[in-house]
């Protein structure tokens, strides 16, 4: 229904009622009989025009409600103080949402469980103040046994507890994170996890004894979004060494501490097309990229000699470990000494790479090769968990800002360069196929881990020790492929038209809302071709907007007979749905004096009542020309199903945007 038409209709009615009032006044106060007679005649003419149609008078009550509903002129925009008051009331709204009706108190366990469903953990550093306040309340009240999370708080105490972190909490419950329906998203992740768990292919790495003894049944997946929403399933707290998963991290530290120009004076940016540990350099006599062994060793030499060269070996290790912990939001990064010793004992190939590069004068000056290789082995032997590595991946997905501490760890251009090389070189000899099938930056390691980055959305880390012939985790690669079958995360997925994939960044009902808008706009515009397209796509043609107005309402109000005929005879929609004001399509047609539609709907209603059900076809009144609704019967019809051009159904003029209501 057009808002302009509603306003015009109400305005005309108001003007005419004022005429009636003035006539009453003149008839009561006039001393002249002729004036009284004239006024009486005018009043009779006016009232006769309005009393001729009871349906219009009845509908005016509804229109007065509608005009009030749409008229916002008397409401001024909220002031700053009003906005502050609304913000202060967030705590009260949350309290009322979760309090117990019987006691009037809020169970904090229930509140924290609801917060967890949005993806925010109780250990999240961003709600440390709230948890600390909760512990203080628990201690102040001398509670014995139990935990602070078992407390039942009154309104004032609850407000005081959550006030320091109310902004984050409000965003969480308003679903203003990058993944609004986080619970639905995690259900899909869990389904993919169990699907991949049954895959028992592959063999664990065996070049050192410690890796060969790892349980091949370990399988864990951890997710962290750029808003700090976290989900983990499986063996995500079992420690493992980073191995090659450390290469993009050391490369990022080198870029941040030096610069792209300095780093790439020593190492290239191209995929090698060869094995990750092959004795080969590019045409500039440099390692091809930082994601292979030769390039990673060279990056370690840059960190060792060009970044804080005054540091000792122990200090340089602590320096690098601190960077890794900052990427992980302060979560633990340990060190596995037995892995380090085994790596150094089985390092003939890496030593050969080092001497080969030293022969070609690739290293910066003052590089001690043995110390450089020890530093490389130490970094590969750093130990962490899949749960912590997902935060590292999320930091890269978030442009270098850690999502759970909100600390800026890297510059955006550093992250851009790291992700570019992860995309082209991160999966050993499988990098090209992975970029084709998955289309996301990733880095794998012989530990069984895959660091997967969905830029501007989330970081994902999978860990499963069995490897394929290329050295990548079998379950991890399968998980990435399955993930891209469900979600439109591929770098070249079309976000607008890829309807067969889910977009977790959208709100649950956003897609449905857009479909309703398109359907109702087509009906208001009289676009039968578009209505056919919606019908063939399987859309529910009875969908309504928040006012309960359907496509049939709008077609009747705008006088589009062909749309009404299509909706009733081809789509079999109900002929008498009521909107929020109790109006049916027949009421709309009568209000706007579309006589043909009024007669059609009345006859249709009579046929329905006589037959006891909606009919699939109906003979319109003889003076109303029928329009061929079956596109397969007339291929040359103006509205043929195969008519690719929609020029036969032009959009309405300038006020078409109002016809959605």
UniProtKB/TrEMBL annotation:
Keyword check for Hydrolase, yes or no. Answer: yes
Q: Where is the composition biased (Polar residues)?
A: 35-45
One GO BP on record is:
glutamate biosynthetic process
Q: Please describe the quaternary structure of this protein.
A: Homotetramer.
Region of interest called Disordered, as start-end residue ranges on this chain: 25-45, 626-661
* Family statement drawn from the similarity comment of this UniProt entry: Belongs to the glutaminase family.
According to its UniProt entry, this protein's organism is Polypedilum vanderplanki (Sleeping chironomid midge)
- What's the protein here called? glutaminase
């Amino acid at each position: 229904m057009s808002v302009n038409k509603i306003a015009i209709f109400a305005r005309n009615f108001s003007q005419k009622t004022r005429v009636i009032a003035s006539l009453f006044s003149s008839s009561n106060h006039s001393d002249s009989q002729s004036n009284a007679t004239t006024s009486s005649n005018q009043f009779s003419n006016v009232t006769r025009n309005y009393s001729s149609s009871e349906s219009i008078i009845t509908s005016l009550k509804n229109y007065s409600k509608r005009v009030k509903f749409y008229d916002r002129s008397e409401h001024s925009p909220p002031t700053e103080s009003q906005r502050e008051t609304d913000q202060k009331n967030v705590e009260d709204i949350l309290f009322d949402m979760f309090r117990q009706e019987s006691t009037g108190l809020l169970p904090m366990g229930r509140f924290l469980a609801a917060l967890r469903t949005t993806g925010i953990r109780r250990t999240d550093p961003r709600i440390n103040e709230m948890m600390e306040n909760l512990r203080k309340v628990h201690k102040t009240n001398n509670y014995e046994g139990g935990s602070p999370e078992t407390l039942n708080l009154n309104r004032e105490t609850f407000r005081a507890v959550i006030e320091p972190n109310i902004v984050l909490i409000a965003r969480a419950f308003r679903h203003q994170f990058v993944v609004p329906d986080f619970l639905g998203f995690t259900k899909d992740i869990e389904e993919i996890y169990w699907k991949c768990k049954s895959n028992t292919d592959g063999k664990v790495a065996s070049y050192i004894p410690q890796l060969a003894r790892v349980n091949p049944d370990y399988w864990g997946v951890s997710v962290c979004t750029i808003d700090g929403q976290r989900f983990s399933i499986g063996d995500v707290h079992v420690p493992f060494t980073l191995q090659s998963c450390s290469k993009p991290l050391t490369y990022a530290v080198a870029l941040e501490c030096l610069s792209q120009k300095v780093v790439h004076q020593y190492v290239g940016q191209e995929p090698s097309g060869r094995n990750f540990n092959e004795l080969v350099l590019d045409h500039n006599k440099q390692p091809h990229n930082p994601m292979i062994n030769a390039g990673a060793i060279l990056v370690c030499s840059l960190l060792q000699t060009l970044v804080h060269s005054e540091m000792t070996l122990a200090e340089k290790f602590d320096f690098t470990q601190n960077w890794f912990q900052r990427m992980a939001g302060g979560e633990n990064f340990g060190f596995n000494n037995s892995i380090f010793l085994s790596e150094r004992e089985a390092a003939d190939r890496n030593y050969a790479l080092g001497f080969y590069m030293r022969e070609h004068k690739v290293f910066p000056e003052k590089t001690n090769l043995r110390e450089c290789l020890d530093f490389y082995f130490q970094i590969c032997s750093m130990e962490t968990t899949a749960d912590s590595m997902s935060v590292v991946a999320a930091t890269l997905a978030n442009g270098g800002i850690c999502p759970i501490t909100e600390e800026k760890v890297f510059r955006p251009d550093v992250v851009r360069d790291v992700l570019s090389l992860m995309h082209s070189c991160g999966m050993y000899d499988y990098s090209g196929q992975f970029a084709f099938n998955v289309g996301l930056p990733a880095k794998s390691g012989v530990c069984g881990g895959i660091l997967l980055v969905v830029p501007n959305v989330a970081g994902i880390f999978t860990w499963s020790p069995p490897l394929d012939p290329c050295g990548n985790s079998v379950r991890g690669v399968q998980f990435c492929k399955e993930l891209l079958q469900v979600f439109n995360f591929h770098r070249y997925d079309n976000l607008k038209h890829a309807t067969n994939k889910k977009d977790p960044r959208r709100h649950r009902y956003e897609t449905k809302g857009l479909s309703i808008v398109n359907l109702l706009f087509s009906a208001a515009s009289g676009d039968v071709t578009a209505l056919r397209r919606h019908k063939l796509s399987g859309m529910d043609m009875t969908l309504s907007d928040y006012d309960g107005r359907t496509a049939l309402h709008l077609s009747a109000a705008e006088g589009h007979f062909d749309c009404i005929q299509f909706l009733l005879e081809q789509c079999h929609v109900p002929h008498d749905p009521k909107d929020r004001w109790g109006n049916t399509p027949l009421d709309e047609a009568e209000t706007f004096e579309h006589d043909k539609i009024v007669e059609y709907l009345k006859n249709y209603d009579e046929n329905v009542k006589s037959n006891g059900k909606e009919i699939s076809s109906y003979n319109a009144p003889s003076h109303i020309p029928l329009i061929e609704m079956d596109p397969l019967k007339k291929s040359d019809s103006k509205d043929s199903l195969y008519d690719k051009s929609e020029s036969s159904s032009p959009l309405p003029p300038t006020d078409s945007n109002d016809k959605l209501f």
